[in-house]
Amino acid sequence: MNKKPTKAFKADMNLPKLIEQFGTEEKCRAYLATLRWPNGIACPRCQSDSISTLVERTVYDCNTCRHQFSATSGTIFHDTHLSLAKWFQAIYLMTESKKGMSALQIKRTLDIAYQTAWHLCHRIRFAMRDINAEMLRGIVEVDETYVGGKTRYMGHGYKGNKAIAIGAIQRGGKIRLQVITHATKAVLHKFIADNTAPDTEAIYTDELPAYWGIEDADTRHESVCHSAEEWVRGDVHTNGIENVWSLLKRSIIGSYHRVSIKHLDAYLDELEHRFNNRKNEYIFRDTLTKLVNAAKLPYQELVKKAA
Questions:
Q1: Residues 258, 31: Cα–Cα separation, whole Å
Q2: pLDDT at residue 152 above 90?
């Protein structure tokens, strides 16, 4: 029996369409208002839907409490000195680039200062976080990786300069990624418990002893022994999550060139968002929706984290 050909994935947004639809500040603000208030504009202070529009200032006035606000008030776009058109272009570039896009490339592409591009990229990553993530279920692969460059004269196995990331992928589904301090049994088991449903069918890992004991009455645990050159045994393998780590490391080498360990969690949030929406033709719209509903991230908070 011949299988039906798989429908080719085609994103709803492309660069010419983006420039045509959102080339002006007015068009961008109108679209943000639609995403923020899909059921009609409402006052963010008292929730009243009795609103007047001050056209000359692109501001809304609440007829109930007299609060004035705009489509960007209290959002991640609030008080931005960068045009919304360039915001939209940066969001498009970051969501459509499989291996991500560096702040330096955003700087060159949008013709903005590097500091502006760096802050812009991190605010977008901040909003990409999946705060209310669904639990993974079915067959789940779990693996950890070390991220960081080489250190001279320290030997091949030195990991003192590296960060540890742990990841899980549901077969045919989504991923969950997180930076951890140590790959201990307590830390790994907590990550698995926090991200997999109690009735998960199976968890596949490598032979690391810290994974032992994660099985229960509803969930079996199987592993492959990489040290013995065992990569696949039947359907037991961790190739899916290892492919994610490969994508992360290609992004670092090919796009970012280097990543601050202090901001690694933000880069993992970006990768997770992009991977989990890999078949979402409306990824640009849905990412914008996240941004317009996300709290703002002041520059002072960002640099304080980096200090």
A1: 35
A2: no
Beta strand ranges found along 55-207 (DSSP E): 59-62, 68-69, 139-147, 163-170, 175-180, 202-206
Domains of the chain in start order, with CATH, are 139-259 (3.30.420)
pLDDT at 156: 52
Contacts of 160 (CB under 8 A, 6+ apart): 151, 154
Phi, psi of 286 (to 5 degrees): -70, -30
Local confidence band at 158 (pLDDT 50, 70, 90 cut-offs): very low
CB burial string 177-202: b at 16+ within 10 A, e below: bbbeeebeeebbeebbeebbeeebeb
Q: How far apart are the first and last CA of the chain?
A: 61
CB 83 within 8 A of CB 53: no
Report whether 60 contacts 53 (CB < 8 A): yes
Distance of CA 148 to the CA centre of its chain: 20
| Neighbour count for residue 265 (Cβ, 10 Å) | 16
What percent of the chain has pLDDT above 90?
75
Amino acid type, 135: M
9 against 211, higher pLDDT: 211
In this structure, the strands spanning 59-62 and 51-54 are antiparallel
> Could you give phi then psi for residue 140, rounded to 5 degrees?
-125, 130
Question: What does the pLDDT read at residue 173?
Answer: 95
Q: Across the beta sheet with 68-69, what order do the strands follow?
A: 51-54, 59-62, 68-69
Q: What is the dihedral of CA 25, 31, 34, 35, to 10 degrees?
A: -110
The DSSP bridge pattern shows strands 59-62 and 202-206 to be unpaired
Beta bridge partners of 59: 54
69: left (phi over 0), alpha (psi -120 to 50) or beta: beta
pLDDT digits (tens, 9 = 90+) for 244-257: 999 999 998 888 87
Structure tokens that stand for 146 in this block = 């070390």
